[in-house]
Structure formats: C-alpha cells, structure tokens
Amino acid sequence: MATAYPLPRRQTRAVTVGRLTLGGGAPVSVQSMTKTPTVDVDATVAQIHRLEEAGCDLVRLAVPDTASAQALGAIKRRIGIPLAADIHFNHQLALIALEQGVDKLRLNPGNLKRPEHVRAVAEAAKARGVPIRIGMNNGSIDPAQRAQFPFTPAGNAEALVAGALGHIALLEDVGFTDIVVSLKASDVRTTVLAYRLMAAQRDYPLHVGVTEAGLPPEGLIKSALGIGTLLGEGISDTLRVSLTADPVEEVVAGWELLRALELRSGGIVLTACPTCARCDVDFDPIIRAVKARLADLDRRLRAGGRTLHVAVMGCEVNGPGEARDADVGVASGKHTGMLFRHGVEIARVPEAEIVDALVREVEALADAGA
Ligand code: SF4
Predict the structure, then answer these.
(1) Pure H helices in the chain
(2) Which residues contact 273 (CB under 8 A, 6 or more apart)?
(3) Could you report the per-residue pLDDT of 5-25, keeping only the tens digit for each?
C-alpha cells in the first residue's frame, strides 16, 4: 500500500536567524556560501545579491582572518538576507563577527577545541541572540575521537554524532540552546547515517548537505542522493548543495530538490521530454528558449510562492497527456505544436511560433492570477 512521501517533517525546535526561522515547522531553507575573498566587500556583496535573486535564504561567509571578520558589518549593511560567519581555529574571529552584527555563527568542533573558548563565544552569542551551528565535518574530526569508532560509514557517522554531542553539551552547560547541527561527510552513506542518528537523539534543527561533493554533475548527483534521501525521511530544516561551481548553481539545485518533493512551492516547474527519433521539431532550441524567456517570471513567481507547471513535449506519444496535465503545455507534432491551457487544446501553431505562443500563454496565466 502506498504511503505518504516525503515522510512528515521531524519536529524540531525553532531557531531564529535574523528574519529567517530554521526548524519549528518553518519551510526548509536554502543556503549557500560566497566564494569571493570576504575582505573584498564589493565583490562579496555583488555575489550575495546574485544569490538573493536566485532565491538564497541565508548566506555564509568564510572568515579566515581578522580583516575578514572586520569586513562583515559593511557587507551585512548592504544585503537583505541573513548572514552567517564561518569560523575555524580562532575563537577571537567569532567574537569580532558578533560585534559586526552577524546573524549566525558556524563553529567547527573539530578545530575549535578549547572548551573555554567555545563557552566564551556562546556567552557572547547568547547576549546578542545569535544562534550557533555546530558544523561537524568528516574531514576535521578530532583524531582521538575518530579512533574510537570503526573506519566504516557507520563508524564515521557515529564519530560525527559523538563530536557534535560533545559540543552541544559545552553550549548547553552555559545555557545556550539556540543550536543548529550539521554532520557533513563527502560520501553519501556516512552523511545519511549520521543525520539519521542525530535526528533520533536530539530535536535541534538540522542543516543538511554532502560536503565537498565536487563538480557538477557528480556533485549534483551526490547531493541529490544524500539530501534527497534525508528530505524524503523528513530530516532537514535547512540545506546547502555544496558544489565546485558558481554558488548560484548551489541555490538553483537546492530549490529544485525542494520543489521536486513539493517541500517548497513557487516558480515555474518545467516538464520537458528527453526527445527521441519520434520528435518532429528541432526541440533543443525550443526548450532552451522557453526556459530563458521564462526566467524572470520564474523568479517573480518564486518570490510570491505561486507555482505554474509548464510542459514542453516532443511528439504525440506522451505529449498531449503531459501537456494537458500542466497549467500550460505544448505537444509537438510534425513541425507544429498543439497548445494546451488547463487541459484544453487552445491552438495549433507552426514550429517557428511554438516558443512565442507558449510564453505568451504562460505570462497571461501568471497575470490572470496575480
Ligand atoms: S514525448 Fe515523444 S519525442 Fe519526447 S521522448 Fe517521448 S516519444 Fe520521444
């Protein structure tokens, strides 16, 4: 018997990050990380604006030195989305980041080891109402802790969770509970096992992702498997698709993952056939033109949380069925297109007019519902 999929979201406590809520039933949010030098304020702000436009909910910046920490305030004043500072090794950088007004800290327990330093940061964050993500990473687990577990995906997962639980205890010791947890590994099996293990034990919101997933398409596939598996089990409050690519691609991928499971709505969901020998139109330029010409509308609809389904199909085998099921669809025939709106055929157009006719119809439908 079929059951619900994805499974209901795991109940987690709500953590506030600037204007954003993580956990507590809030929509799963999409994060990314800038790839510019943080000290280059103009370049970093420009990249964040591109991320905002793509639908990024929260941006994280690496803070490798004091100059980077001191640049955070100037960056924050020029952006709209909450800003998280990524801190390793030096707790003083976290204290400066807090003074600069960041909305969230990410600390890596594998390389911020001294309990008194962690407590000092927790006290300062608590005073400002700033949450902390405990960001465990398979590449930087404390070697002594790692040696306590078998060198298998299950052992790696246990080591990640043990490290995070130790850090959670340090923060809870000083009454700090505005905590988000991540347990990232560069392999999918460890990642999934670690998050499952943590989800069964604590109710802090989880930031999920497969770390260092690599270049697209490999990185996309690993991320879709790891994050997708967890989303399907209701385990995820916020996510980052980590790619060796323009960070905008990370945001686009995050959104597509959430839209594929209908965990976030908004924008244009495009169905397109892969084409085959039955296709009687020059399909590739058609689908690329449709996507490009609907890009602005996609952004506007996403911001408004409204979804339109658009289908572009290459022939009459599955075409009419898919085109009828979409809000607006086209099923191509011999150098022609049958245009459907809400399941009803409304026109037949020559191949050269398919793109114009389809885009016009989608825009009209969007305007009608605006
Ligand atoms: S819709 Fe037609 S052209 Fe497209 S893949 Fe299916 S059979 Fe081939």
Answers:
(1) 41-54, 66-76, 91-99, 115-128, 143-146, 153-173, 188-199, 218-232, 247-260, 283-293, 295-304, 319-325, 354-368
(2) 279, 283, 312, 313, 314, 315, 318, 319, 322
(3) 999 999 999 999 999 999 999
Domains, the chain, with CATH or none? 15-260 (3.20.20.20), 267-365 (3.30.413.10)
Q: Is the pLDDT of residue 272 over 70?
A: yes
3-state secondary structure of 291: helix
Task: Quote the CA–CA distance of 120 and 111 in Å, as a whole number.
Answer: 16
Provide mean pLDDT across the span 55-65: 97
Q: How many CA atoms lie within 13 A of 319 on its CB side?
A: 25
Does the pLDDT at position 87 exceed 80? yes
Whether the CB of 198 sits within 6 Å of ligand 1: no
For tokens 């490999």, the residue is 218
276 Cβ closer than 6 Å to some ligand 1 atom: yes
Determine if ligand 1 sits within 6 Å of the CB of residue 318: yes
Q: Is the pTM of this model over 0.70?
A: yes
Range 334-339, long-range pairs (CB < 8 A, 24+ positions): 334/280, 335/280, 335/281, 336/281, 337/281
For residues 261 and 6, is the Cβ–Cβ distance under 8 A?
yes
